[in-house]
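SAMPLE LOG
Freezer: B-3
Tube label: C17
Construct: single chain, 127 aa
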Amino acid sequence: MKFLLDTNFIIGLLRKDKNYISKFEEIKSNNLYLSPLTVVEIYAGCREHEIEETENLLQKVFTLSLSKLVSKEAGKMIYQYFKRGKKIYIADAIIGATAKIHHLTLITQNTKDFPMLYPSQIEKFPK
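STRUCTURE (predicted):
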C-alpha cells in the first residue's frame, strides 16, 4: 500500500507520540510520501532547535513534486466545492489532489478537511 502522510501525522512523530511512532513502524515498509504543502506547513512551525530532528525525519519519507496535474485537480476541487457554498483551503486541496492523482491513501487526523476524497482514499489516525 502507498500512503500520503498529512501534517498532523508528522507533528505526532516529531512530538514523539507513541501512537504515531507505532503506526509509523507498522507502515514504514510501505511507500510513504509527503505533499510539498506538508513540508511547508512543517517548516512554518519548526523552531530553530527542532530543524535537525525535523530534517532527519523528513528524509525518511519521499516528498512528491507539485505537478501541473495535481495543481489542476486541486483547483477543480476548490471550484467544485465553492459552487456548493463550501470552502476548501488551498493546502488541503493540494494534499487531497496529491492523494487522488498518485493513488495514495491519506493518513490524517482531520478527515473533515478532505471531503473530496472517497473513504477508501483516507485513513483517520488516530481513530
